[in-house]
Write a structure and sequence with these properties.
Strand content: 15-25%
Helix content: 25-40%
Radius of gyration: 30 Å
CATH class of one domain: Alpha Beta
């Protein structure tokens, strides 16, 4: 019988390797820690050199406060730091680094050399450490700041080294760290150079101190206009929020193109990308995300930054949501309140579907209406102030409570997307493939998706009309089993559905009140011109509700989803041929809606092909 293993203390070398695995997993993580130290040292200029994407060498040079000889000897020991000294300091962390692990962890798996000149000292000193070996202090020639050189990462841990990704992947990881840190500190000057093993320059970048918007555009250039929003003292502990986002049509397939910075540290928030995609609803395609940055300055005492080994996350106070803050600040600047579209009904061949019943407004005023006594304000890119409510009360969901007025997803001031022509004045060329309408404009060729165009017209009419919520009794009731999360709020949900044209049987209402069953029977639904799979749509609606735990917002979400579905089912179908008069009527109605760039599902309604583009395509 084998002897049971005994508990024993690990030696310092093993402990160092384990700690390094949490902090140092690739060159990019080492780079991030070195940049944290340089910024914490009060640097105004930081220079970075990477050879072979940091796998051969990482060099960071700053002009900060520097270290003296005694500090140099201590800085590569575990949990040695100048940034905190007491337990209370952990509740008020103002620095990027604070654990005192980075240099020690790096020195355990790489060759490290630090040269530093402490302000007010007479000379600079160098200190080396690699693996378990520590060097001697030696004087060097350095006039200011600190120079840290890391070479041969994982030279003594070949098993770890083989798990590194390809050179291009590691390069991209390092570039992402540099971009994020430069974005988080626009008042600092940054420059970096990437070299290959033979010393050939592969990538370089340099930026001087600038504003957040300027730095963001320099780092992530797009052909579009930036929207700036600032807010101060919006909630207890939230001192300032500064946002810069590209206006549509700029968008991205990747959530990582939404950057969040909290007290100078780039962090992640799982709900934020989806909240901002909702804010841009109707302005960008539904599968894409906006591109922008949110820089927040908060009281360190209200957040916990000590929850992730690489400081990629923070824990917020209960009831606070970054997603709600961002949504509520940004959304009002992405919409205008329209007047109801004037859609005529002259052509019965086309107009019959315009009477499709529906639901009302989408996220009517999207940001919550501020309390009359609220003194909190934000500033838009034009320097105008607008009130914002205390976010502590509206943090749970990222979709805000609708107001009595109606506001569609209309891009204010988007000259690049709002057509500079009238659809009714276009010369109709014809229809292609029973799907596309081709027109001639002075600038070139306009192609419309006939289904998407008609769908957008119907959608806006449905949202803006108050008398289209007509209930239609069903010959065969629709049975639906409520998901578990909906049981506690079943009666409140029923009330919302009844406002929108649904009706439950008396037996279903009784069972819900008595909590004796979870299957309900719908005996009436909103009237539609075409058959709708209500069981499938109900599933979609409950999925939407589950994502937003605040009952105040369920009605707006359900209305939008139903309006989109009814508009889709009541519109001209792909494969359905329409005549010249019907095309003409459709184009006239396109002029009367507020904005026809995207259908309710986020797909383009029309595309423009300029003469120049066509000539280039034909190599003219």
């Amino acid at each position: 019988m084998s002897k049971a293993p005994q508990v024993q203390l690990l030696n310092s070398e093993i402990v160092g390797r384990i700690a390094a695995g949490e902090v140092v997993d690739r060159p990019a993580s080492v780079l991030k820690e070195l940049l944290d130290n340089a910024i914490d040292a009060g640097s105004t200029q930081i220079k970075i050199l990477l050879i072979e994407a940091g796998m051969k060498r990482i060099e960071v040079i700053d002009d900060g406060a520097g270290m003296g000889p005694e500090d140099l000897k201590l800085c590569t020991l575990r949990h040695a730091t100048s940034k905190i000294s007491s337990l209370e300091d952990l509740d008020h962390i103002h620095s990027l680094g604070f654990r005192g692990e980075a240099l020690a962890a790096t020195a355990s798996v790489a060759k490290l050399r630090i040269e530093s000149f402490q302000k007010g000292a007479s000379e600079a000193w160098a200190w080396e450490a690699f693996g378990s070996t520590k060097g001697e202090l030696t004087p060097v020639s350095l006039s200011k700041g600190t120079k840290v050189k890391i070479e041969d990462i994982f030279f003594n841990v070949p098993a770890r080294k083989k798990f590194l990704k390809s050179l291009s992947s590691e390069y991209q990881e390092c570039l992402t760290v540099l971009q994020n840190m430069a974005l988080a500190h626009p008042r600092l000057a940054f420059s970096w150079n990437f070299l290959n093993e033979s010393g050939e320059l592969k990538e370089s970048f340099e930026c001087s101190p600038e504003t957040l918007g300027e730095r963001f555009r320099n780092l992530f250039p797009h052909d579009g206009e930036l929207l700036h929003v600032q807010a101060a003292k919006i909630d207890e502990g939230v001192e300032n929020v500064n946002m810069a986002f590209y206006k549509s049509p700029v968008s991205s397939r990747f959530k990582k193109d939404i950057h969040l910075i909290v007290n100078g540290c780039p962090v992640e928030d799982a709900r934020l990308p989806y909240a901002l995609r909702e804010a841009y609803s109707g302005l960008i395609e539904s599968s894409r995300y906006p591109v922008g940055v949110i820089d927040m300055k908060v009281d360190p005492s209200i957040i916990d930054v000590n929850i992730h080994p690489q400081k990629k996350e923070v824990r917020w106070p209960k009831g606070f949501s970054v997603a709600s803050v961002a949504y509520s600040l940004l959304r009002p600047h992405l919409e205008v309140a329209p007047s109801a579209p004037q859609v005529s009904d002259q052509d019965p061949g086309l107009r019959s579907s315009f009477s499709a019943p529906s639901a009302s407004t989408l996220f009517a005023s999207t940001a919550r209406a501020p309390a009359p006594h609220s003194q909190n304000t934000a500033v838009n890119s034009s320097g105008e102030r607008f009130p914002v409510d205390n976010f502590r009360e509206s943090m749970k969901p990222f979709v805000a409570k609708p107001s009595p007025g109606v506001a569609l997803s209309v891009p204010a001031g988007r000259k690049e997307d709002i057509p500079n022509f009238k659809f009714s004045e276009l010369k109709i060329v014809g229809e292609v493939g029973a799907a596309w309408i081709v027109c001639e404009a002075p600038s070139g060729m306009i192609v419309l998706d006939q289904h998407a165009a008609h769908e957008r017209i119907n959608f806006e009419k449905i949202l803006l009309s108050k008398d289209l919520l007509r209930s239609k009794a069903l010959l065969i009731p629709v049975e639906y089993t409520l998901p578990p999360f909906a049981h506690d709020d079943a009666l409140q949900l029923v009330s919302v559905f009844e406002k929108l044209g649904f009706e439950l049987s008396d037996e279903s209402l009784k069972s819900l009140k008595e909590k004796s069953g979870d299957t309900v029977e719908f005996i009436a639904v909103p009237e539609a011109d075409r058959k709708i799979d209500w069981e499938d749509l109900l599933g979609q609606l409950f999925s939407e509700i589950r994502e937003d735990g605040n009952p105040e917002h369920w009605e707006a979400k359900i209305k939008y989803r139903i309006a989109a579905s009814l508009a889709c089912h009541g519109s001209i179908r792909r494969g359905q041929r329409i005549g010249h008069d019907q095309i003409k009527a459709l184009l006239e109605d396109m002029d009367k809606i507020q904005w026809g760039g995207l259908c309710p599902h986020g797909r383009p309604v029309w595309l423009s092909f300029t003469h120049d583009w066509i000539e280039t395509a034909f190599h003219r």
